[in-house]
Amino acid sequence: MNIRYLGHSCFLVRHGEHTVVIDPFLTGNPLAAARPEDIQASAVLVTHGHGDHVGDAAAIAARCGCPVIANYEVSLHLSQQGAQVEPMHIGGARTFPWGTVKLTQAFHGSGIELEGGGFKEGGMPAGILLTMGPYTFYHAGDTALFGDMKMLGELNRIDAAALPIGDVFTMGPDDSLIAASWLKAGLYIPMHYNTFPPIRQDADAWLERLRSQGQSGTVLKPGESCDIKRTDAAVISGRSSVE
What we know:
Blueprint: E1 2-7, E2 10-15, E3 18-22, E4 43-45, H1 51-54, H2 57-64, E5 68-71, H3 72-79, E6 85-88, E7 93-96, E8 99-105, E9 112-113, E10 119-120, E11 126-132, E12 135-139, H4 149-155, E13 160-164, H5 173-183, E14 188-191, H6 203-212, E15 224-230, E16 234-241
Parallel strand pairs: 3-4, 4-5, 5-6, 12-13, 13-14
Antiparallel strand pairs: 1-2, 1-15, 2-3, 7-8, 8-11, 9-10, 11-12, 15-16
Helix pairs in contact: 4-5
Family: Belongs to the UPF0173 family.
GO molecular function, one term: hydrolase activity
Function: Counteracts the endogenous Pycsar antiviral defense system. Phosphodiesterase that enables metal-dependent hydrolysis of host cyclic nucleotide Pycsar defense signals such as cCMP and cUMP.
């Protein structure tokens, strides 16, 4: 499995011939490492309805001829914009030709911001357990720390996990390190930080603290990727910048 970070909470995850994109906030993202028209995907996954996560989902799905997978309310909103959707909800799993998606709970909001002001019901926010081939990537979405992360670690063999560290709107560094100790993933990647001034964090300091508690991680700059290979646990086998 190859995981490429595009900035904020956006990742391209590839296994074999298939690639999926998660939370494609590219237009308007000052740190985005790609443009929407650069993305080729078999599916678009969206964790919740906020604009910095829905982002360019509908446009990418339309150009690629692929579905958007999100909770029912976000799916309904995007379908009204002409997107092909595959609605799901918390606790549900679904298998596609390229892999399996299971939505987990997350503690956050999901209101969909409308043009001209106002909000539309966005359902419950989610995290994503994405399995492609033998590998599972956990994208926590925007969330606070919650106790059932222990259960996620007990019930799933997670090869890599992306955790928000920005604080203010999500977990900060301290709580994300607790989450890491519960999830028991092979590799941790920080996300949802430094995009805007309120969520500025020192990811290298976070990584040092993570390693001091005996866990593996990597800080990916926007555009960088890592390869996940399984031994006794997930390990990073390489990191590279991708144009």
